What does this fold into?
Amino acid sequence: MAQVLVLVDHVDGAVRKTTSELLTLAARLGEPAAVFVGNGYENAAGALAEFGATAVYTVDAAVNDYLVLAKAEALAAVVEAAGGASALAAVLIPSSAEGKEVAARLALKLDSGLITDAIDVRAGEGGGVATTQAAFAGGFAVDATVTKGLPVVTVKPNAVEPQAVGAGAGGSVPEATAVAVELSDLAKAVKVVERKAKAKSGRPDLTEAAIVVSGGRGTNGDFSKVEAFADSLGAAVGASRAAVDSGWYPHSNQVGQTGKQVSPQLYVACGISGAIQHRAGMQTSKTIVAINKDPEAPIFELADFGVVGDLFAVLPQATDEVTKRKG
It folds into this structure.
């Protein structure tokens, strides 16, 4: 079977859940092969093997000293080292802001088709790679296939439940193949001189969280009840554009077309009207619960469950009940 390259999303070898999801999807198409850029591979090897990586290509950490073009050139070098585009089945990349830019630049380099924000990836009926994307606020599902070159696909987090295959830290791990990359002058035109870790809130990352609780204009700037409910569920906290533009919550927590796109198992919208801009960022959530005083709010059209009520009355009761059931 042809290999499927998966770009590993990690921090110093600590592999993120998005990578295990991509390896699970890659197994539907061929032999999963991880592409590890940076330091810490020895820490990641067990996790990659556990979720099905049968081969690993490592790239020198110096690539991370530069911006996304360097990572695209590194992936292109791995494609060549793996036998060229014709020898591979696909390249899967996390659908983050950086991931989509890397994927676009790689597709240009390979003269290949590109699909972004896929929520499902599978083998096509006539061969090749088939994907599903959500469009128009979740009102339509779009099936697409790449018809030219090596398929390059970015996949949204939580698109699939990761499936471990049994190997791992205590079992066999694939032998890593080091790939030398000679970056172009253009790729080295800007160099990263410093990185600082974002202060941790204790909550999961917004784009990877299984549960997201978001607040909007209905909070009137008071997110305390939203945060308390989120913490009772172990959830991430999001915000609508209206809340962010009003200065009530950081832009890094914005969910929507111009913010982050999330696809959790459960999304709770609190005091959010459900404008198309916001819906574009959370439409692929598996279950959507809406809390709003306005029974005519558009968010109820999208919600699986709706509560017509004041979030300041509803959320404390929900928080108390969750806490009680957790014992």
Summary: Residues 112 and 149 are 4 Å apart (CA to CA). The chain has a mean pLDDT of 92. The radius of gyration is 21 Å.
